[in-house]
Design brief:
By secondary structure, the protein is α/β, with parallel strands linked by helices. The protein is built from eight helices and 15 strands. Strand 7, helix 4 and strand 8 form a beta-alpha-beta unit. The longest helix is centred in the last third of the chain and has 16 residues. The protein is globular. The mean pLDDT is 93.
């Protein structure tokens, strides 16, 4: 069986479980379950702390795991990113007391508090910046400056409201743009079943990004309509009982749905219908 590590709690947990469910895998009903076999799909799930998942993948205890890109890079594990999963997006930034620093180079000689010491040290080293210390904290790093532990904090930022509430401002360029990823070991052959898991997850990602659009179009306008909805390879065009019209079906990006519908209607298309895609393979 393919052994898959899944976050057992936190912001990564529910979206990961939902994605796997959409991909056709069995998921636990009791949050106390730590191991869940899915013999119908020849996989076994292990529910682990998000921060530990990259370590288990790197050690070969599990074959693959879902974790954050930031956690993966901070783990110093021989695991690598196999597939970005498109959820739990965030930005990793430096922050300090409002109005004091404006550039990352100014961190030289200062104390930096973070829950991601490996990532921070590597990022600063790449830029030739040497802080006086990197202080590891397990959480609530926004309090580190007020309590005198550090001069700068480095943390994952989604909206920045927590930092602003603590009187801090982000500054300089982003260290990292993170999201959930599927991780695997880089130094071993791809495990059996990983190709199937990858295709299924990619199918979910595509289904979330696209919708299926159907519409009726006058024959003399089909070429113009197809230019608006080119689909992935090419749209399907079928004759209607009224030979002066054709039915067109194409995949359209979900975030462009209403704009495309407006363009088609203005062109002369009618009976424009949009259907969500549950699953797909490209």
């Amino acid at each position: 069986m393919l052994r898959i590590a899944v976050p057992n709690k936190g912001s990564l947990s529910e979206p990961a479980v939902e994605m796997l469910r959409e991909a056709g895998y069995r998921q636990r009903r009791d949050s106390r379950e730590l191991v869940l076999p899915d013999p119908d799909n020849d996989v076994e799930f292990f529910f682990l702390r998000p921060r530990d998942i990259a370590v288990y993948v790197g050690a070969g205890t599990v074959d693959v795991g879902i974790t954050g890109r930031d956690l993966l890079l901070d783990s110093e594990s021989p695991a690598v990113e196999h597939l970005p999963l498109g959820f739990a997006r965030s930005t990793f930034r430096f922050a300090t007391t409002a109005g004091t620093l404006s550039d990352i180079s100014q961190i030289a000689g200062l104390r930096v508090a973070t829950s991601y010491p490996v990532l921070v040290r590597a990022t600063l080293a790449e830029r030739g910046i040497e802080p006086s210390a990197v202080v590891r904290l397990d959480g609530a790093v926004e309090s580190a400056i007020r309590l005198g532990v550090a001069d700068v904090v480095a943390d994952v930022v989604e909206t920045g409201s927590t930092l602003r509430a603590a009187g801090l401002d982000v500054f300089g360029e982003a260290l990292l743009r993170s999201e959930a990823v599927l991780a695997r070991r880089s130094d071993v052959e791809a495990p059996a079943g990983l190709d199937v898991l990858t295709r299924r997850l990619q199918g979910v990602l595509t289904a979330r990004q696209f919708v299926l659009m159907d519409y009726d179009c006058p024959l003399d306008l089909v070429d113009q309509a197809v230019a608006i909805t080119p689909g992935l390879e090419s749209p399907t065009v079928s004759p209607l009982h009224n030979r002066e019209w054709a039915a067109v079906r194409a995949m359209v990006r979900r975030d462009q749905t209403n704009r495309v519908m407006d363009q088609l209607y203005d062109l002369g298309a009618r009976a424009i219908l949009v259907t969500s895609i549950h699953a797909c393979r490209l």
